[in-house]
Design brief:
Elements (H helix, E strand, L loop, with lengths): L2 E5 L10 H10 L4 E4 L8 H7 L5 E12 L2 E8 L6 H12 L1 H14 L6 H8 L6 H10 L30 H10 L3 E4 L13 H9 L4 E5 L5 H14 L2 E4 L19 H10 L6 E2 L5
Parallel strand pairs: 1-2, 2-3, 5-6, 6-7
Antiparallel strand pairs: 3-4, 3-8, 4-5
Length: about 280
């Protein structure tokens, strides 16, 4: 089985619609794909309706968190999307995205970058507006060559010249909310140092004690040494080790199935989840 548990659609900051994403996942030879848009479940219905035969969908979300001043992301799998407490927290994070993005546009304008709010909204389309959309605007204007190059201290990285903070959930609270909604919690790309400061191992150990299920080990932002270290840490802490592409369509260079999750780990995720179940494809349109 080929299992990719971390992808994004136009429901957040990907460039493929949910329907396009599942069709491309099937064409890439995946057996299981996880839809994990940022702080939203809006893509579920479209993805399920289009799900090709032979492909299973794992519903999820990537939650924005912060611990000790360090931004991090928590993947939530197979939770009940209507559970009130987790739903309210996701809405709180999403509601803060618009004023944050407007603030980044204002800071860029103050730096003589002619980005406009209308441009960012056009790029975001129906998605939840966020930093990647502002980064794409910088690419359009020729300020930076790629989206990744916008995530530096010069521009949009944490603490950067055009950075604006937003509401982010405490990860221990996120774990509690995910588990209460019947879901499984996995720390996304914990060693992605190119994105800024990373969470120390001691904090990950505390999360493990608080109910964290796993850490994402195999990821494009982890070099071989980081993957080896994280695999050892997962074993030491009794955590599941997942692998994923973090696919965003054309917004990033990663491709579907570039990194995958071991079938035994996937089986354990599905066994632990009680809020929702994987959806087998029935040959959608």
């Amino acid at each position: 089985m080929r299992i990719d548990l971390h992808t994004h659609s136009t429901a957040s900051d990907g460039t493929d619609t949910p329907a396009e994403l599942v069709r491309r996942a099937a064409a890439a030879g995946l057996d299981v794909v996880g839809l994990t848009d940022h702080d939203t479940t809006r893509g579920y219905a479209e993805a399920i309706a289009a799900l090709p035969a032979g492909l299973t969908l794992v519903t999820g979300a990537e939650l924005s968190c912060r611990v000790d001043g360090i931004s991090m992301h928590m993947l939530a799998y197979l939770f009940d999307p209507e559970e009130p407490a987790l739903l309210a927290e996701r809405e709180l994070v999403r509601d803060d995205r618009v004023p944050r993005a407007r603030g980044m546009v204002a800071k860029l304008n103050a730096l003589d970058v002619p980005v406009t709010w209308e441009q960012v909204l056009r790029i975001a389309g129906d998605g939840s507006v966020g930093r990647p959309h502002v980064a794409s605007a910088l690419v359009e204007l020729g300020v930076v060559p790629t989206v990744g190059d916008a995530f530096t201290e010069d521009w949009l990285a944490d603490g950067g010249r055009a950075y604006v903070a937003k509401h982010e959930t405490d990860p221990f609270e996120a774990i509690r909310l995910i588990k209460a909604a019947g879901g499984v919690a996995v720390f996304a790309h914990p060693a992605a140092s190119k994105r800024g400061r990373t969470v120390p191992d001691a904090a990950i150990a505390k999360m493990a004690a608080a109910g964290l299920d796993g850490i994402e080990v195999d990821h494009m932002d982890h070099d071989p040494d980081a993957r080896a270290r994280l695999r050892g840490l997962a074993k030491e802490l009794g955590l599941l080790a997942t692998g994923s592409s973090d696919y965003h369509g054309s917004r990033k260079t990663c491709v579907l199935g570039e990194y995958t999750t071991d079938p035994e780990v996937y089986g354990e995720i599905t066994r632990r989840a009680t809020g929702a179940f994987p959806v087998p494809g029935a040959g959608g349109n």
